[in-house]
Amino acid sequence: MNPMNIIYIHSHDTGRYIQPYGHAIPTPHIQRLAEEGVLFRQAYCANPTCSPSRGALLTGQWAHSCGMFGLVNRGWSIHHPERLIMHTLQQAGYDTALAGFQHVVKDLDEAGWSRILREEDGDHQAPAEKMAVSFLSEKHDKPFFLDIGFGETHRMGNGFSPPPAGEPTT
After folding, report:
1. What is the rounded distance in angstroms from the CA atom of residue 135 to the CA atom of residue 148?
2. Distance between the two ends of the chain, CA-based, in angstroms?
3. Parallel, antiparallel, or unpaired: how do β-strands 95-100 and 144-150 relate?
4. Following DSSP, what letter does each residue of 70-112 receive, concatenated?
5. What is the pLDDT of residue 133?
6. Cα–Cα distance between 101 and 161 in angstroms, integer?
7. Tens digits of pLDDT across the chain (170 residues)
């Protein structure tokens, strides 16, 4: 069996307010991914804030074990960034790439992405979908791990509204 490509999609504060989870916010492409891939209906985060939760997910360790006690932009960091899944996958022959936002490391080079996708002006936080589509349209000679981070839903405004009534607003 050939190694599978992995696409890790994360967005800030989206939660389960999208179409695959029964909400009215239309996300047709994510809906299609859910129908053709894996959709977790009973998933839990390892920590209530993003950096520790992502650190736990991407190292396979609890946040307190990997050192990510708080937000990366407030000075917290993973004790051993070489334990991030990107390093492990590279050792297994994967091409690893980041498109868009991440909240795991302060220094992008220590995370282990073999490629940090950037716009021509060098902006690595330009529209993630544009960079991801470009990466996916390339010919790949080896399996890949594409980390796509969307920050657009992190704040209200710009067309985004509060979560549906009756849902927790954590």
Report:
1. 11
2. 41
3. parallel
4. S-GGGT---S-GGGSHHHHHHHTT-EEEEEE---S-SSGGGGT
5. 92
6. 21
7. 889 999 998 887 777 778 888 887 788 988 998 899 888 888 788 888 889 999 999 999 999 999 999 988 888 999 999 999 999 999 999 999 999 888 899 888 899 999 999 876 666 556 888 899 999 999 999 999 999 998 766 655 555 555 555 544 44
Write down the pTM of the prediction: 0.81
Q: Which two tokens stand for residue 16?
A: 């389960």
Distance CA 129, CA 117 (A): 11
Alpha-carbon gap, residue 147 to 42, rounded angstroms: 22
Query: What would the two tokens of residue 75 be?
Result: 């000075």
Q: Which of 10, 87, 103, 124 is catalytic?
A: 103
Query: Is there a catalytic annotation at residue 50?
Result: yes
Q: Could you tell me if 93 and 3 are in contact, meaning their C-beta atoms sit under 8 angstroms apart?
A: yes
Is 66 considered catalytic here? no
Q: Which amino acid is at 116?
A: I
CB atoms within 10 A of CB 119: 13
Residue type for 163, please?
P
Active site residue: 50, 66, 87, 124, which one?
A: 50
